[in-house]
Amino acid sequence: MPLQTVLRAGLALGLAALPLTALAQTADTLPVGETPVGETYVAETHGDWEIRCIRAEEGQPEPCQMYQLLRDEGGGAVAEFNVFDLPDEGQVVAGATIVTPLDTLLTPGIRLRVDDGTWSEYPFAFCQPVGCFARLGLTEGNVEAMRAGGEAIVALVPLPAPDQVIRVAASLSGFTAGFAALEERNAAAISLFQQLQQQQ
Q1: What is the C-alpha to C-alpha distance for residues 36 and 12, in angstroms, rounded to an integer?
Q2: Structural contact between residues 185 and 129, judged by C-beta atoms closer than 8 angstroms
Q3: I need a labelling partner for 167 at 20 to 30 A (CA). Which of 7, 42, 99, 112 fits?
Q4: What is the dihedral of CA 45, 55, 77, 93, to 10 degrees?
C-alpha cells in the first residue's frame, strides 16, 4: 500500500480514535494559536461549512473535518453533519458522520439525498451520550453531487413518533471550497508525516 494512502488513512483513523465528544462539542472560539492541545477549533469557514481541527502538539499534524450543525425550522439543533477526506482508493473517496439525538428510532437508519436526487439509506453504527452516529461512505459521484447541489437533505424518524419523518437540510454553500481546503490540509499533513519520518 502506498505511503500516502497509509498516512491519509491514519488521519481518518485519528479522527475516529478521538473521544467522540471532541468533534461533537462546540468548537473553541479562542484564536487558533491559543486553543489548548486536544481541543476543537474552527480553522476555516467556507460558506455554511466550518473546517474543525483538533489542536495537536506543535509540529504534529492535526486531524480536521468539515462540520455543519443542522437545525429545524424553529432553529432547534437536530443533527451534526461531519465530512472528512479519505484516500482515493476504490469507490469511497470521502467519509461522513451524521450525529442525531438519542431519541432517534434506530431501525430505519437515516436517509440522505442531494436536492431532488435519489435517497440513499445508511444504518446507525452506535450511540453515545452525545447522540447516535451514522457513518457514510461517499463515492466520487456523491461528492460531485454535493459540489453541484444546493442542499443535502437528511431524513430520520423520531423515537416518540415512529410514524413521522423529520427532514433537515444541510446547506451546500461553500462545500466545494471547503472540501478542497480539507484535501489541501491532508496533503500538508502527509508532507509533515514524511518529514517527521525522515528525521527518525
Answers
A1: 21
A2: no
A3: 42
A4: 70
51 is written with which cell numbers?
473546517
The residue count of the chain comes to: 200
CA dihedral 186, 64, 127, 102 (to 10 degrees): -140
Which amino acid is present at 15? L
* DSSP output for 27-68: PB-S-GGGSPTT-EEEEEEETTEEEEEE---TTS---EEEEE
Q: Return the C-alpha cell found at 23.
A: 468533534
Cβ(168)–Cβ(72) below 8 Å = yes
